[in-house]
Specification:
Mean pLDDT is about 90; it is low at about 1-55 and about 85-95. With about 675 residues, the chain is α+β, with helices and mostly antiparallel strands. Among the domains are: about 10-95; about 465-665, Cupredoxins -  blue copper proteins (Immunoglobulin-like). It starts with 8 loop residues before the first helix and ends in a 23-residue tail after the last helix. Helix 1 packs antiparallel against helix 3 (about 55-95) and helix 2 (about 25-55) runs antiparallel to helix 3 (about 55-95). Strand 22 (about 465-475) and strand 23 form a beta hairpin. The strands form seven sheets. The chain has a six-stranded mixed β-sheet with strand order 12-11-14-19-16-17, with no helix packed on it. Strands 23-22-26-31-28-29 form a six-stranded mixed β-sheet. It binds copper (II) ion. The site of copper (II) ion (CU) has 5 residues, from loops.
Length: about 675
């Protein structure tokens, strides 16, 4: 329990008030004041009694000066008291929790006057991370937010720009920010993954992320990569524009407006508390089930349905999208949730799928979009033929994959699409599609999706990694996620990258030995918790994941986009490699392996760095479903880490908010 920090806002507020009370009334000042006052009273009493008996001139002068002394002392004390109380008040104000807010919808509409021709610029942001109570759908919950707003700010930039984000951690737990899908070519230490490419940013510390965005465009996002923290609100979108006329060339269906739509599952309880429940003994991979879901950070629960929750529906309503009947709209969907897959539709609308994880694809007409956590899909929506003013956008969580019945669950969250702008007097009367909704958790079939910029996959891989993904119950009845025989645990104070760079500087074995090998497991790391496949030079690598679990896993590779070569149920056929099409397979950064199924991906390992490959269901990641690739280790051997990156590890409190260590349960027989 010791490493598991939970913040309680009510306690924090009480503590602050106590501090204020002490500052104003209590402590040393108070007793000093009393002693001063009593001295003055004694003097006064003495002088008055003396005056009555015999009032000589000398005595009157003495009395006069005593009065002046008394007034001076009182005045000095009053001024001191006022200064002190003013100071303690302003001190209190600086600690005061800013009122948290939901982000206005306009913030997620992309700039209609965007300059696609601009010279590369540095885009600089100041983010303060702090804790708040907020009610995105009516129910109040503790959240960890950027600048007091939920969800996080949109980062909109051109390819070639530099991003500089100053993160000031004013929260009670440590943090980090991962830039999901960003290649970080040459800046591996800016990838934001605790235990892998950096130490956490401890409470009270600041850190600046600085990197160039080159060689990629499209829809991405950022999120905390510190335990479950992202699920408590630390998420936001990134859009990278292709320069010049490139965006119009890559997007084959024209559109007049461009917007971001975040969908996410939503838990009413603090994610770190739920994680403790999930990982405790005897719990056989029963992932916590969310109570609710959000579209762009909003939902509208009926508080009367939730008598046991602190709920207020004042100013809470479905997200409203004002769309034009004059032109098409691009909606960039991002699943920023921890666990649930969504099926999304806009009633009575067909639309075109045009982008997958930053890869523009030839338009495919669909009317329901399935999206797993961490994935992105752009759709271009033409206005409907039979025009009503209002339509429902429905985002349904696929509850088939939930481990148990959650009594407070509302599986569908809706937004309103509005084509005219009268007052919102009535609800949409639009109709759901008639066919049965998806019952399986798996990716939308991507085999028909063809990237606009055709790139052939290398026809042969140099190396194969076969990963058996499973949950196993081991000592003390702890159920954990395994990739082969490894179950990941983050080492907060010794990230893989720091360890490697340090080992190369000191010429330590076996790391020096592996520099002469093109591919293999680096046994310098204890594979029990840190499975590291390492390459030197540029290699083409296949990963075949075989899923032995009854749940779906959206696997994400940092630092790369990979080719999705094939996937299926059961085991792959013996002649799998004879049936593959290398001409122009889909390239993306997050692909699922369905329950009891398999997925084959291929990537060209040319980006030097330490890159995790992990299930993006936050519960599974915390249970250990993560391994790492060290690619182009020969390049890493030439690196020295920036001082501020190394310095993070020396701060007090880097472990605050980390997931629990297994041994806290050793010896318990409940
Ligand atoms: Cu998973």
């Amino acid at each position: 329990m010791a490493r598991h920090e939970v913040f309680q806002l009510s306690e924090r507020k009480d503590a602050e008030h106590d501090e204020e009370r002490e500052g104003l009334l209590g402590g040393v000042e108070d007793s000093e004041l009393n002693s001063e006052v009593s001295d003055v009273e004694e003097l006064g009493t003495k002088s008055e009694s003396e005056g009555r008996s015999s009032e000589s001139t000398a005595q009157r002068v003495k009395k006069h000066w005593l009065r002046i002394l008394v007034v001076a002392i009182l005045a000095a004390w009053t001024v001191g008291f006022l200064i002190h109380s003013l100071l303690s008040r302003s001190h209190g104000a600086s600690n005061e929790v800013v009122e948290a807010q939901l982000r206005p919808e306009e913030d997620y509409i992309l700039d209609s006057n965007w300059n696609f021709e601009a010279e590369p610029v540095t885009r600089e942001y100041d983010w303060t991370i702090s804790e708040h109570e907020l009610n995105p759908d009516g129910v109040y919950k503790p959240m960890t937010l950027i600048n007091g707003m939920f969800p996080g700010p949109l980062i909109e930039c051109n390819e070639g720009d530099e991003l500089v984000v100053h993160v000031h951690n004013k929260a009670s737990n440590a943090t980090s920010v991962h830039w999901h899908g960003m290649f970080q070519n040459g800046t591996n230490w800016m990838d934001g993954t605790v235990g892998i490419s950096q130490c956490p940013i401890a409470p009270g510390q600041s850190f600046t992320y600085r990197f160039n965005i080159t060689g990629q465009t499209g829809t991405y996002w950022y999120h905390s990569h510190m335990s479950m923290q992202a699920s408590d609100g630390l998420v936001g979108p990134i859009v990278v524009h292709a320069k010049g006329g490139e965006e119009q060339r890559l997007q084959k269906v024209p559109y007049g407006q461009d917007r971001v739509v975040l969908v996410s599952d939503h838990y009413y309880d603090l994610a770190s508390n739920l994680l403790m429940e999930y990982l405790k003994p005897g719990n056989e991979n029963e992932e916590p089930v969310p109570q609710s879901a959000l579209i762009n950070g909003r939902g509208a629960r009926n508080c009367t349905d939730l008598p046991n929750r602190n709920c207020s529906s004042v100013d809470r309503s479905n997200t409203l999208f004002d769309l034009s009947t004059e032109h098409n709209t691009r909606l960039r969907f991002i699943n920023v949730g921890a666990f649930a897959e969504f099926q999304i539709q806009i009633d009575e609308h067909e639309f075109f799928l045009t982008e997958v994880d930053g890869t523009d694809v030839h338009p495919q007409s669909i009317h329901r979009l399935n999206i797993n956590p961490a994935q992105r899909y752009s759709i271009v929506v033409p206005p409907p033929k039979d025009q009503q003013d209002l339509y429902w956008m429905r985002a349904r969580m696929i509850t088939h994959c939930f481990a148990y019945e959650e009594p407070e669950l509302k599986e569908e969250v809706r937004a309103i699409i509005r084509y005219q702008t009268p007052s919102l007097a009535v609800s949409p009367q639009s109709k759901d599609w008639p066919e049965i909704i998806e019952l399986e958790c798996r990716d939308l079939n991507v085999s028909a999706l063809k990237p606009v910029d055709a790139i052939a996959a290398p026809e042969k891989a140099d190396d194969q990694v076969y990963l058996r993904s499973s949950f196993q119950i081991k000592d003390w009845r702890l159920s954990r996620g395994f990739l082969n025989d490894s179950s990941y645990r983050a080492n907060m104070s010794h990230p893989t990258l720091n360890t490697l760079v340090d080992a190369y500087e000191r010429k330590q074995e076996p790391h020096m030995y592996y520099l002469s090998y093109p591919f293999g497991i680096n046994t310098g790391f204890d594979a029990k918790h840190t499975l590291v496949y390492q390459t030197t030079g540029i290699r083409t690598i296949d990963i075949l994941i075989q899923n032995f679990d009854d749940g779906n896993h959206p696997f994400h590779l940092h630092g790369y986009k990979f080719f999705v070569l094939a996937s299926g149920h059961g085991y792959p056929a013996d002649d799998l490699y004879d049936t593959l099409d290398f001409a122009n397979p889909l390239r993306r950064d997050t692909a699922s392996v369905e329950a009891f199924g398999w997925t084959l991906i291929r990537f060209v390992a040319d980006n030097a760095g330490v890159w995790p490959f992990h299930c993006h269901l936050a519960w599974h990641n915390e249970a250990g479903l993560l391994m790492q690739f060290v690619t182009r280790a020969d390049e890493i051997a030439k690196w020295t880490l920036p001082e501020d990156v190394k310095g993070l590890c020396a701060a007090q409190g880097i472990e605050k908010g980390a997931g629990p260590e297994d041994d806290i349960w050793f010896g318990s027989f409940d």
